[in-house]
Amino acid sequence: MRLLVSADIHLGSPIRSAAMRNPELGDRLKQASRDAFIRIVDLAISEDVDALVLAGDIFDNDQPDLKTRAFLISQLAEAADADIPTLLIRGNHDALLDHRAHGDLGPNIHLLHKDAPSVEIAGVWFHGLSFDTAHVLRSFLPDYPGPVPGQKNVGLIHTSLDGAPGHDPYAPCSEQDLMAHGYDLWCLGHIHAPFERSSGPVLAVMPGIPQPRHFGERTGGTVAIVELGDGTPEIERHQVGRLRFKNCSLDLTDCSDVQETLRTLRAKLEVMRDPEHDTAVRLLVTTGHHTADMLAALTNEVLENIDRVFVDKIKVTAPKQQLDSKTDDLVRLMREELSEPGFQHAGKQVLEDLRGVLPRAISDELSEDVLDDLLEEAINEVTLSLHAGAAE
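Above: the chain sequence. Below: its structure as tokens.
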């Protein structure tokens, strides 16, 4: 039996932070998740798989967006019309999959949950449990049915496993216990970076997010096709994401002329263009002559003639200067102050206050981990302004 395994599609993700910086990129990101799901269904049909497996977080939030739900149903109906059943579970984002509130998804589409945790398809048993609340801090594994003797058994589970950087602990589960449960294959969701684990004849597959949504998700963009046969299941990865994220470093220290700056920007952004992908770029610019606003205006002008490239953000860093000037003495003192425990504590408190009043899609970018980066950006802006003022 051949299975196409995916998870974490996050249909309907608001992409607010990207949209605030670049509305065109925000719109493209929203569509990119839908496009990726269309490619998933098309791939399932073209590869003539025996089942489509979705291990949670098909939707991004609990808003009653029935248009997005209708999109999902229409795509899964295409798979069903091609005699490809779908098996899925609810992840921690998936309120729109609640069959009690919104009804069944359609024929040959099997939503696995505690009242109907198992289904048999062509001699293979599929088992899964769904989130009923957004936060589950205990392991689901003890509640999973035992394997059906003499048959292949496949588990769908949405879990942070033993924990992963950047992911809260949702339905945490020991990897060792998971692999010892008795199933032949585990189809995992929740962690957006793809990986697989094997233990003897048992395989666990984390397909990863099929369409990354921001610079923290630069791995992914794939789904997995798994073949169940004798021995350990075999896996192959397929690319479905069409929007990628790239950092682009650019030194404009010696470019004081506007025309030269435009030529340099154009050459760098042309290199970023890929006929197969849309590309979101973060420009990391070293300059003593240009503000971020000026560079944004010049970049937008250049991009008028470069297709499929979008600038998400421009980060400006002042060039290193001799440290014997008054301006650099001031900057050095500021850096020393930033490293003080009291200042760090106050900065983290400000971030926490902001997180409490901002939408989640924006507040997630204001974790304590980004404080040093934000302070560095502030120092760079001050340094640039001081040196510019000293030059006048």
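The CA atoms of residues 293 and 345 lie 30 Å apart.
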